[in-house]
Amino acid sequence: MSKIITSIFSLLFFVLCFYCGNARDQDSDMDPSATTDSGKWRFSLNGGAGYRTAKVKDSKQNLIDQGFESADVDDYFNQIRLGYKASGQVHYMFWKEHGLGIDYQYHVSSGSISGYVDPGDMVTMVFAKLDDQVYTNYIGLSLFSQSWIKPEKFKLYSQVSFGLTWYREETIFAYTPILITGNAFGGNGELGLEYFINDFLALGFGFNYFQSTLSKVETDNGNTSQEVELSDEQKEGLQRIDMNLGLRLYF
Q1: What domains does the chain contain, in order, with CATH numbers?
Q2: Does the pTM exceed 0.85?
């Protein structure tokens, strides 16, 4: 389902830019300034926030079954879902409105929960704390599209990329460290607006949707490590909606 959403989201991006591009071309017949170019190379640096949208119902129930309070579990997953993001793109405009390049995305979030849990004997309850630090890195080949809304001032842009995701989760549960890593194919789509300060520098604001799902992970507790194939119910969804603000450089 998430792949379908990503495809639809990406298609809408380019339909919108294509429409704006056609409108701009029509306007350019009357106004020569509408053909303004801002440079062949485009560099983008961004910061912002990202919210993971994948379902966590089964994961929540697992923690509740261990003995954690339901309200504490909800708070823990809210912490894990919301995190900081940074991103950067480099594109070369092979065509007037379209270019190719590299898209990099980074997201980090953390969460903690504590309470009395069942150690497995179904009799005693012990106090335990769970601390998580989750990192997601992604890099992909990107197709970029742009269209002037107001020449030399406002530009609408979109980009869609497909690449590889690296996942790293550093967990400490009941004083026992556990490292979980994995990688998977992923995709990212972004739509935004740029305001040009001059011909080479712009401020940008955008939204993007990131999609990737882990079907296999490696766990390491410092003594042993193992690869785990995840069932359909256990697969780790990394889907995320991001908001970003940053600088754009054109050369």
Answers
A1: 2-250 (2.40.160.20)
A2: no
